[in-house]
Amino acid sequence: MMKLRPRYGEVDQMGYVYHANYLSYCHQARTELLRKLDLNDKYLEDMNIMMPVISFNIDYKKPAHYDELISITTTIKDLPKTRFYFEFLISNEEGQILCKANSTLVFVNKESRQPKLIPEFIASKLQSNFKHEKEFSLL
Q1: Active-site residue 12, yes or no?
Q2: Could you read off the pLDDT of 103-128 as tens digits, one per residue?
Q3: CA dihedral 95, 21, 104, 101 (to 10 degrees)
Q4: Of the listed 12, 46, 67, 78, which one is catalytic?
Q5: pLDDT tens digits along 23-80
Q6: Structure pTM?
C-alpha cells in the first residue's frame, strides 16, 4: 500500500483532487509495487524492456481532498503473458473507497517497440511472489 497526501496544486476550485491526478497516483503506486519486486523502470529499460500503458479505466466513488491522507493498494491478480494487468483501490483514512481503477500494460522491446512475451527474468521474479498467493499486492 502506498500512502500520499494530495498537494495544493492537485486540487480543483471545489477543493477536490482533480480527476486526472488519480492516473498519476496509480502510475506512482504501480511503479512502487514493481520496485518492491526489483523491477524498477530503469532496470527494465537497461534490460531492453518497456511497458507502455494500453488502457486505463477509473471509476470515481468519492472525491479526495487537499492534504487528506489517501492509500493506494495495487494488485496483480494474474501472472502476465504479453499484457500486464494492474488493479488499484484508492481509499481515505476512514477506509472509504474513493475510486477503483485498472490499467493494462504490454511488454515491448525498447529498440523495435514490438510487443513481446513476458521476459523470463520478469516472470521468475513475479512467480516467486505468487507461490503461496493467488494475487500480489503492495502492502
Answers
A1: yes
A2: 999 999 999 999 999 999 999 999 88
A3: 30
A4: 12
A5: 999 999 999 999 999 999 999 999 999 999 999 999 999 999 999 999 999 999 889 9
A6: 0.90
Whole-angstrom distance between the N-terminal and C-terminal Cα of the chain? 4
Distances (CA, A) of 45 to 52, 65, 86, 113, 125: 12, 35, 20, 12, 16
| 41, three cell numbers | 523502470
Enter the DSSP assignment of 52. -
CA-CA distance, 78 to 86, in Å (whole number)?
Answer: 9
pLDDT of 137 above 90: no
Which residues does residue 87 pair with via DSSP β-bridges, in sequence order? Answer: 75, 102
User: Please, are residues 52 and 105 in contact by the beta-carbon 8 Å criterion?
Assistant: yes
Q: How many residues comprise the chain?
A: 139
The dihedral of CA 113, 46, 3, 74: what is its sign? positive
